[in-house]
Amino acid sequence: MTEKTRRSNFLTDIIDADIAAGRNQGKVVTRFPPEPNGYLHIGHAKSIILNFGLGQQFGGRTHLRFDDTNPTTEETEYVESIEADVRWLGFDWGKHLYFASQYFEKMYECAERLVKEGKAYVDSQTQEEIRDQRGNFDKPGTNSPFRNRSVAENLDLFHRMRKGEFADGSCVLRAKIDMSHPNVLMRDPLLYRIRHAHHHRTGDKWCIYPMYDYAHPIEDAVEGITHSICTLEFETNRELYDWVLDNTGPWSPRPHQHEFARLALDYTVMSKRKLLQLVNEKRVSGWDDPRMPTIAGMRRRGVTPEALRDFAEIIGVAKNNSIVDISKFELAVRGDLEGRAPRAMAVLNPLKLTLTNWPKDKVEMLDLPWWPGEPERGGSRQVPFGAELLIEKDDFSLEPPKDWKRLAVGREVRLVGACVVRCEEVVRGAGGEVAEVRCSVIEGSLADPKRKASGTIHWVHATRSVPAPVRLYDRLFSAANPDAGGDFLAALNPDSLIKVDGARIEPALAQLEPGKHVQFLRLGYFFTDPVESKKGAPVFNRTMTLRDTWAKPAAAPAPERKPEKPAEARPAAPRKSRSEARDAVRAASPELASRYQSYQQQLGLSTEEADVLTGELELARYFDAAVAAKAPAKAAARWLINDLSGLVKDRSFDGLPLSGATFGRVVAMVEEGKLAAPAAKVLLANLVEKGGDPEQRIRELGLDKKIDAGVIGAALDKVFKAHAAEVERYRAGEKKLLGVLIGATMREVGGAADANAVRKALTDKLG
Ligand code: ATP
Ligand code: MG
């Protein structure tokens, strides 16, 4: 994270301004303050990433503070899970782990001071009376009859409250502010209430407990928090936050509260109460059920911390609440897994395929790469191939539709990584169903990957494959707003978990350890369940389908949505007819139509760019792979349309030696300033013809010489900022930190830079 480029949003603007104004000696200290009463969910992840991210970005620190001001009984499980989740997300609070209950004595002292200064009083009315006197937005409140108790009387009563002389609810401590204050929360708010309850950490030491609005600012101030970031609901509480600090201080640094929009996702419930209900009623298998929006659930499903951080980046930090489209989350997960999950084969719903002209007992071990299309990543596995295979039932049709690209009688398809086969006949079972398809191998096609076929399907060997439990997880709710009908349980998706029993996997997959990612070709991203998998017996969780299966089949775009053609674009006539042709393609393909929408709405492409990229599936997938490989979408679209298309000419994007993902890496390098645009053009022209690893090719072609001192200088500036502490320690004599700084700078400039030049620039700057 530290090496990431700087993000900016309204909070970083505030912090920049604070630093510029010299507030808090330029220090930035943030905190994440969960209440240990449940498991963390994706909304908390957003807050964690934000708070720890700001701490890192500004060379400050972030505290983990358990907000345990409410006496609770069972918190250990939650405390432990929260710590594990924050760590898993990639963050470290160092020695700054705190419990709000540690500050009870300090809070009490501050309250005593407020009483002594006439700023707080003990009110002996009931909770209802107090509530009734509060008034509302257009009606001022009424003073309590106990408001004018003397300081001496208040002090005595408050001491006795602490000693336990009064029953729960018999009195409270209130701030004496103003009962006609325009902000209702400022109308003599409660500071302490009596609760004779056992506290998990402080035991029976206390029978008065501070209210959140009073406790929170003091917790922040005691810890030296500079920026106290919370969700928008607390905006009106800010006035009280400030009042408490102004009347209990002076504090240095004096914390300030800033609010941002909480995360809400469609197709999801996030309230702790509802999540607990799902667990208690056994609607899910537990807090870590892979369908839960909890961090524990997502982790078990195969979502990675990087995907969550990417998602946080995509949605950004805003100051107005909105409901985020869950497909953005899914997009981030797919993007992350695309570059992380090696490819292999599994058949979920097997149909026997017999090769009639292959020797019955001959098994050939095929050496297939884990990363087809990306040979530079290396690695392969042995896949047994023979006369008896299994294919997906869905990949055969007795009555194939017109555009059928899979198997049917008389049709030819390629088996992934193997030969082309032609289906000769089917064998029917007792009930008349297709029990077996009999095919012949097209001679020479095993050795000739160019031999054409109408499509490609995956397969496994019938007896050498291994059975494995596979679980197809999907969205937990089938309604966009599960709460709309009043009963969120009614919106549960009955198909959110499908347990597949008869699935067969290729032998290499049986050796996967728990917690590994793999893409089952054509089926989805899967993850070996970290809890239930055993050595040699993995259980597979589907993390995500390969494509959005929920996208509304978008209607063909209305003609008036099409933009006016800019004057400098291609000649009018062909342009128009091509665009019309693409419209027709999209009208017939929901996959392309939905991309046409999402490229504009989610990726911010222009209508014209989205149009060009969704004219054919191959091209769209190529673009998706580039974006998944972290290329900024706008730039990837521009490079693809303006440069790569010209280089590819009439060839198919599918068989290109330059994969979409690798293309995306090149675009990202340009965008990050690691590769000059003219150099990138040379590089792309070369990769399109010859394939290979871009970084190696950059060196071979001497393009790295184009990485000039300016790029290194800019990288050093970033690294010095992100690693200010290490720089200081290095200068103070810890020379072994040089390696860390070189590593960070190399990551910043990309592997394309000359390491010696980086080292020299770095040591020069360190002095
Ligand atoms: P509850 O109020 O139901 O107990 P909570 O979601 O507020 O639950 P906390 O443990 O108090 O839970 O939350 C810890 C921190 O996480 C808070 O600072 C809060 O602002 C933040 N947070 C909670 N939910 C979200 C969300 N949906 N989006 C962003 N931040 C959130
Ligand atoms: Mg809360």
Briefly, what is this?
The protein has 767 residues and is an alpha/beta fold.
Using DSSP, what is the number of strands?
29
Low-confidence regions: 554-576
Anisotropy-based shape: globular
User: How large is the share of residues in beta strands?
Assistant: 15-25%
**Helix-and-strand structural type:** alpha/beta
Average pLDDT, rounded to a whole number, is 90
Q: Can you summarize the main beta sheet?
A: 7 strands, mixed
How many helices? The count is 25
Describe the overall structure:
The chain is α/β, with parallel strands linked by helices. 37% of the residues lie in helices and 16% in strands. The chain has 25 helices and 29 strands. The protein has a 7-stranded mixed β-sheet, with no helix packed on it. The protein has a 6-stranded mixed β-sheet with strand order 12-27-28-29-24-25. Strands 4-5-6-7 form a 4-stranded antiparallel β-sheet. A hairpin with a 5-residue loop joins strand 19 and strand 20. The longest helix has 17 residues. The chain is globular, with a radius of gyration of 31 Å. The two termini are 26 Å apart. About 3% of the residues have low confidence. Bound molecules: adenosine-5'-triphosphate (ATP) and magnesium ion (MG). The site of adenosine-5'-triphosphate has 14 residues, from helix 2 and strand 8.
